[in-house]
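Protocol step 6 of 9: fold each sequence in the batch and record its structure tokens directly after the sequence line. For illustration, a two-sequence batch is reproduced in full.

Sequence one:
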Amino acid sequence: MAHPEGLGRASSFVWHVVPQVALRLGAGPLLPAEADAYSLARLDPRQFRRTVGGLLERSRLHEVNRVHAPAAGTPFAIDLLNNRISQGNPIAFGLDRICAPLLADEDPVTRWMKAASRQRFGHDRFLRWSPGFEDAKGGELEFIC
């Protein structure tokens, strides 16, 4: 994906937001143009979770043109970033590790997971996605409160 200057939300998300998440998780040297969104860098973990969750909701990643096809059976990286939060989104995973979700919190990632939990299990106590979330039949997952 080209540098984001003038290319819209999806490109900015990939160039600035994703690398900021990676940096907070301990990633090493980035390209000079990556993660240069100073406003994200100075947020505390809870503010970062709320802000990045909101940006993820509005990222428009689904509009990205797929120019180069990956190997057969391999998803595009952008498709993985575009996974629904309640179906295993890697940015949401990172946010859960940077700043754990709270039951009383209403950040966008927590809001999505609470809604999916209510729909599937009749309660909103599953605040993080895990691989078993897709197959669980109410109560089989550990509650995170």
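Sequence two, same batch, same settings:
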Amino acid sequence: MTPTKLQQLLVARLPEAQGIASAEVWPQRPYGLTVALAGGASVHWMVTGASGVAPTIERKEPDQAEFPDLTTSPVKVADIELALQATILRAAEGVLRVSRYSTRPEPPAVVFGLTVDCSDGWRLFVSAVGTSSGPGDRVRPVAAGATV
């Protein structure tokens, strides 16, 4: 799965999660994605990847991730990260595993995001770039413990 295909999948399927108003292409970043919540706030993401680097493993049973409650305010960015994971695991074929950055004992510099390993050898990265409180608001950097 390429970065473009993952971006398209999230645009099409992420709005099925309760509390997400829309998922749209964010043109400020390559393969950018804006996830808008029903309350008006948004989290901006970027999808990147490399082909031929995902480990060759077999996924015997599909992993599952429950959709979090995104209808209350404020919403944790970690919960939106979980919604991304749940959407990918339910909707994408050929995904071997999806790991969340925020649940790692020592999260990377990009505090919120995902690593997606695919059976075709692609390893994709979905990284939180920033948040905004509504349309037209400036994008602010995202930090550990962030809410929108």
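Proceed to step 7 once all outputs are recorded. Observation for sequence two: Helices lie at 3-13, 77-91.
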